[in-house]
Write a structure and sequence with these properties.
Elements (H helix, E strand, L loop, with lengths): L1 H6 L20 H15 L3 E6 L5 H14 L3 E5 L6 H11 L8 H14 L4 E5 L7 H10 L11 E6 L2 H7 L4 H6 E7 L4 H14 L21 E2 L5 E2 L5
Parallel strand pairs: 1-4, 1-5, 2-3, 3-4
Antiparallel strand pairs: 6-7
Length: 239
């Protein structure tokens, strides 16, 4: 690998999983989604972010979490979305330093009390939320209710693929859907954005010039895949 990097004049791999600050491409869609989520948190609301795999949801949420932690927030990340309701409640309890109680309701009540008493702002990020079982989604809604529904123990962001839209639109989740204040969406990069993305990544990796040409990146046709900021490609959509 080191010989390959030297051949192209790079100090490190330009498309590694961990993205350095200087390699982050804050394109227009990324910035708009970030502003939507921050605005929702300021309103003490709940938000959802939806995008196809590889479009940068986790990258955006990681940047948001880092920023909030720097401001004194406590951010709890949950991605074990095939678990049942008791698993979700128990995991959240352990994340905030509580031992699970004998029943789910007792554990949920202890979580609510602990977070409300804490002076810090708490954010729960549930990734891959489109895969949550129905009972778990309902328990998640109930966990956001406290003090006659006048306050919530924590802020909530649901993150998932576009199928999350369909899950929330299901009548059995209408109560949760009504609580979602804002929905942010990330789309695959355009050809022009892809050129900028590649250039920023290469520069952050140490290139002094442009060892890999991006001139061949033109407007994709209806049969060409679209590059997404997570480094994957989105297959062409049928007409």
């Amino acid at each position: 690998m080191s010989q390959l990097l030297r051949h192209f004049g790079l100090d490190r791999h330009p498309f590694s999983r961990r993205t350095p600050k200087e390699a982050l491409y804050r394109h227009r869609g990324f910035e708009e989604a970030s502003r939507r989520l921050l605005f929702t948190l300021e309103l003490d609301g709940r938000a959802a972010i939806m995008a196809a795999t590889g479009c940068g949801k986790s990258l955006l949420l990681g940047e948001l979490a880092d920023s909030l932690v720097g401001q004194g927030w406590s951010v709890h990340y949950f991605a074990h979305t095939t678990t049942g309701p008791f698993g979700l409640v128990n995991t959240l309890a352990r994340k905030i330093g509580l031992s699970p109680r004998r029943s789910r309701s007792e554990t949920a009540s202890a979580i609510s009390s602990r977070l409300i008493e804490d002076e810090r702002q708490h954010l729960l990020v549930v990734d891959e939320a489109h895969r949550l079982p129905d009972p778990t989604l309902e328990d998640l809604r109930l966990l956001t209710v406290a003090d006659f529904d006048r306050q919530s123990p924590f802020h909530l962001i649901l993150s998932g693929r576009p199928e999350l839209d369909d899950r929330l639109a299901d009548p059995i989740h209408s109560a949760l859907d009504q609580r979602i204040t804002t929905v942010a969406r990330l789309m695959p990069l355009s050809a022009a954005e892809t050129r900028q993305y590649v250039d920023i990544r290469l520069q952050a990796a140490g290139t002094k010039g442009q060892p890999i040409s991006t001139r061949k990146l033109s407007t994709p046709s209806s049969t060409a895949p679209t590059v997404s900021p997570g480094g994957s490609t989105t297959p062409p959509q049928p007409r």
